[in-house]
UniProtKB/TrEMBL annotation:
Name the record gives this protein: Signal peptidase I
GO biological process: signal peptide processing
Biological source species: Ramlibacter pinisoli
Keyword Lyase: no
Reactions listed under catalytic activity: Cleavage of hydrophobic, N-terminal signal or leader sequences from secreted and periplasmic proteins
Topology relative to the membrane: Single-pass type II membrane protein
Entry's localization field: Membrane
Length: 322
């Protein structure tokens, strides 16, 4: 078993290193699931087989020591050192390294697996597409059950939950490459007609409220952007516009239901198909979103982003957001 365990742990470590070096495309949900299964099997084996055997060996050692003391007592020897017996019993009961690194880690791995798969998952904001709502480096929490509980890895929905609403900030699997997680704002729900023309958003023919705010200064790029307050559904949030960027959408990819969209020099108009969502970043002119790669199917939903739990560059960022 030590040799087999060493091989299993080496396989996990090799996969992690290959993922870090970019040799393979990593899947943390799958890795965590496999780790939970493997350590769980070791934990069961420990409880049902290995631990009882160690206890039997320890008890046998104690019995042998008692018999030896009885034999010595019969010979008139009463001074017997019990230290070696106690130490030997402790060594026999001690978990070997290969069980310590598998069965011993199972409760922790199981707790992380349940928490991450069904309750809350942490994410780090990697880009500026959601500025000013979310900044690069924000560490956020995502509610995994708000839109319905899903099985990890295969993402099959178990419960319906509350459907995503316009204005929600949602994490989802990037449709062109589902191994990547993206975060954007829900702009259109199934059946909506979303128009983004001349940098003005309209949903089902109704202009979305957009009021000017003081310009936003981006400390990373060291430049100002025009900032507006937008009211989308029940959410009030800030967005940015860059006057130097054109309104038309350059380089839109082919995607399912692209026939539902009409592109022009003014922008794009899309009819959201059933079971799909239209997503946009709050940094409207610096966001690769549904305007470029299409709609997000319901099966790609990861969860609802709702809380910044840390930003090491600014502790003031901690808190909930719209």
């Amino acid at each position: 078993m030590p040799t087999i365990t060493a091989a299993v742990l080496a396989a996990f470590a090799g996969y992690a290193v290959a993922w870090y070096l970019g040799i393979v495309e990593g899947n943390f949900a799958l890795l965590l699931f496999l780790a939970t299964v493997v350590t769980g099997l070791y934990w069961l084996a420990e409880r049902l087989y290995f631990l009882p055997r160690r206890r039997q060996a320890a008890e046998a050692l104690v019995v042998q020591a008692e018999e030896r003391r009885g034999q010595l007592a019969a010979q008139g020897i009463t001074q017997v050192d019990n230290v070696d017996v106690a130490q030997g019993r402790q060594r026999l009961l001690m978990q070997p390294w290969w069980l310590d690194w598998t069965a011993g880690l199972f409760p922790v791995i199981l707790a992380v697996f349940v928490l991450r798969s069904f309750l809350f998952e942490p994410f780090k904001i990697p880009s500026g597409s959601m500025i000013p709502t979310l900044l690069v480096g924000d560490l956020i929490l995502v509610n995994k059950f708000a839109y319905g509980v899903r099985l990890p890895v295969i993402n099959t929905k178990l419960t319906d939950g509350t459907p995503p609403a316009r204005g929600d900030v949602m994490v989802f699997r990037y449709p062109p490459k589902p191994s990547l997680d993206y975060i954007k704002r829900v702009v259109g729900v199934p059946g909506d007609e979303v128009a983004y023309l001349n940098k003005k958003l309209t949903v089902n023919g109704q202009p979305v409220s957009k009021d000017a705010l003081p310009d936003f200064f981006d400390e990373d790029s060291m430049r100002y952007s025009r900032q507006f307050r937008e009211v989308l559904g029940p959410r009030t949030h800030a967005i940015l516009n860059d006057d130097e960027r054109p309104a038309f959408i350059p380089g839109a990819e082919d995607f399912p239901f692209k026939e539902n969209c009409r592109y022009s020099v003014e922008g794009v108009v899309c009819k959201v198909p059933a079971g799909h969502y239209f997503m946009m970043g709050d940094n409207r002119d610096n966001s690769l979103d549904s305007r470029f790669w299409g709609f997000v199917p319901d099966r790609n939903i990861v969860g609802k982003a709702f809380f910044i739990w840390m930003n090491f560059s600014s502790l003031k960022r901690i808190g909930s957001f719209e």
